[in-house]
Specification:
By secondary structure, the protein is of the alpha+beta class. The protein contains 20 helices and 7 strands. A 5-stranded mixed sheet has the order 2-4-5-7-6, with helices on one face. The N terminus is likely disordered.
């Protein structure tokens, strides 16, 4: 859900208007409504009519700019130029807010949510849909309420927050019941079914998935039927009803082949592997896992090639921009040098010879400096290339080395399942094989963890954050991890709404590292507190635990790279020693501060202060 669909409608009447006459308001609105139905094959026409509305709108038509900006955003969205599309949608939103028109604001918020959903930013998508839903309720527009509530349910499912998803899906269902038969319910029931699936309420999920399967069978909608069959098969596997699961899996594979979709075929093989693993039949589970791996690798390689091409294009644009800046700098430097020479010649004539000598020396030094800069730039380019090769190698290691270890473990499990035919010595040998495979996987995870947890090439993107809601979402996610050790996380929000301008990803990673450390180093049946307070020009986030604490002589080094303290995780968890180093780097990037108060055996308090 959340992706616009367009139907091609061609209106020859639009061309009958003479360009000399100003179009009236009703005509321009009719043009806008028709153009909204244009598909990607008519994107050039969308750009033409955006200009047409902008040029021919009378001064009394204040909404013309909103309509034109939105059409320009759609044009760039069809061109897959998402950054430009987002820019125009934001301009449309600002103009709609200036006019105080809630309907146009809702449309712009929906457009932005779709963009951020395609860019895989679910938290930003959620915030936009929530604002759109609030305006829809304010205007009491039923279909808009249904659409935004449905989309919010889908986003919360993606965030694995099924209770929140069901809350909004119930609103959408209430609207659908009022307009019985006028609203298509397939997507609604699919999202409700997914929410119950995430809550492990298999029978409730099954009821909604079956309803969709029957409806799409009557409509002969092959695309939707594949989704229905994959959902039904997954539920029946969880219920250990393997005959029913096998029936729907066979239908899934047939439909995927009819649709000629390699992605759907790969997903079907992955579920086949889960099916046989649930039956403790590891050999066919391994075979289907290999079929999935082959298809998924081919698809991954195609996506990687596209990503490399996009990165190369961005790199070339960046280099061109740098060359332009260097040329501008040289022009300004040359202008300043000429002005200095003219002033010296006018004031003191007898210094002309000295000025020429100085000029020659400056030119020589400039050339020497330029050669050094060129050498430094060449070295930087080599380092960039080596870093990209390193990242590529690590990516291949992560993808390709995991398969042999998985294969070793599966074959060992197959042998282990035949224990009645094995001697004690053979069973010990199989146990050692499994232990060695686990150690190998942990070694790869450690290497990959160290590489991925660096800052990388992420550029800071500033946006408004509602810190109360933001922290509540993160704490909700870590409560499940903490519950495995019977640890309680208490969150104390600020007494009033607190907004900061910061980078969502950086703040999220800061909190994830602090909460992850708190859970790792706190013994079972203890507590963790997260507190938010307003300090005027900055906010303060405190994470306090009842953990093992840190020795006094180690406190000065905990934020340095690989500075693992002598304290050990209470549950034998994996730790690289990078978490606090990354927190310090991220906080520094955001112009904030981080500090720690701790006593060995009495827990720790980490305080992060970020500017508003």
């Amino acid at each position: 859900m959340g992706i616009k669909t367009f139907t091609l409608v061609i209106s020859l009447l639009l061309f009958c208007k003479t360009s000399a006459a100003l179009a009236d308001t009703s005509h321009l609105k009719a043009v806008y409504d028709r153009v909204l139905d244009f598909g990607a094959d008519k994107k050039d026409s969308i750009r033409f009519y955006a200009k047409y509305i902008e040029t021919n709108a009378p001064s009394s038509f204040s909404a013309a700019r909103v309509l034109a900006l939105r059409l320009k955003g759609i044009y760039h969205e069809f061109n897959e130029d998402y950054q430009e599309a987002i820019d125009y949608y934001y301009q449309s939103l600002e103009e709609a807010r200036r006019l105080g028109d809630n309907r146009y604001q809702t449309a712009a918020l929906g457009d932005l949510a779709i963009m951020y959903n395609q860019l895989n930013q679910p938290y930003k998508t959620k915030d936009l849909y929530q604002e759109a839903l609030r305006l829809s309720w304010k205007e009491k527009e039923a279909f808009s309420i249904f659409t935004n509530a449905l989309n919010l349910g889908s986003v919360y499912n993606k965030l694995n927050m099924p209770d929140s998803a069901l809350f909004y899906l119930a609103q959408a269902e209430a609207i659908a019941i009022q307009f019985d038969g006028q609203i298509e319910l397939g997507s609604l029931y699919n999202n409700i079914g997914n929410a119950w699936f995430y809550k492990k309420e298999w029978d409730k999920a099954l009821r909604f998935f079956k309803h969709n399967f029957e409806a799409h069978t009557q409509q002969n909608d092959i695309e939707s039927l594949w989704h229905d069959c994959i959902n039904l098969a997954d539920v029946y596997i969880e219920k250990n009803r393997f005959d029913s699961a096998k029936n729907y899996l066979e239908q899934c594979l047939t439909l995927a082949q009819q649709l000629q979709s390699r992605r759907k075929e790969a997903d079907t093989y992955a579920l086949y592997s889960k099916y046989y693993a649930a039956k403790n039949e590891y050999k066919p589970a391994y075979q289907y896992m290999q079929q999935w791996h082959q298809l998924d690798t081919a698809l991954l390689n195609a996506q990687t090639l596209r990503s490399v091409a996009e990165l190369q294009e961005k790199f070339q644009l960046r280099q061109e921009d740098l060359r332009n800046k260097e040329l501008l700098f040289e022009i300004r430097q040359e202008k300043m040098r000429k002005e200095s020479f003219a002033l010296l010649a006018a004031v003191v004539g007898f210094l002309a010879l000295s000025a020429i000598v100085i000029s020659m020396l400056l030119r020589k030094n400039h050339q020497h400096l330029q050669k050094k800069n060129e050498l430094i730039q060449q070295q930087n380019e080599k380092l960039t290339t080596l870093n990209e090769e390193k990242n590529s190698l690590i990516s291949m290691v992560s993808h390709d080395l995991s398969a042999p270890f998985t294969s070793i473990k599966l074959w060992a499990q197959i042998l282990q399942s035949e224990t009645h035919e094995l001697t004690d010595r053979q069973r010990k040998a199989i146990h050692r094989i499994l232990t060695s495979a686990d150690n190998g996987e942990n070694l790869i995870k450690r290497i990959l963890f160290v590489d991925k947890e660096e800052l990388g090439d992420h550029r800071i993107t500033l946006e408004q954050l509602d810190v109360n809601a933001f922290l509540e979402d993160i704490v909700h996610i870590y409560r499940e991890q903490a519950q495995q050790k019977n640890i309680r996380i208490h969150y104390t929000p600020s007494l009033h709404t607190m907004i900061i301008i910061s980078d969502r990803l950086f703040v999220k990673r800061i909190m994830e590292n602090l909460l992850s450390n708190a859970v790792k180093f706190t013994a079972p049946n203890r507590n963790i507190w997260v507190q938010l307070s307003d300090n005027g020009n900055e906010i303060a986030i405190r994470v306090k635990d009842e953990g093992v604490g840190i020795k006094a002589d180690e406190l000065n080094h905990i934020f340095t790279k690989h500075s693992q303290a002598s304290s050990l995780p209470t549950g034998g968890e994996f730790s690289t020693g990078l978490g606090l180093f990354i927190v310090k780097r991220l906080v520094d990037e955001l112009n904030g501060t981080v500090s720690c108060e701790s006593r060995e055996g009495e827990g720790s308090v980490f305080t992060v202060k970020l500017p508003k």
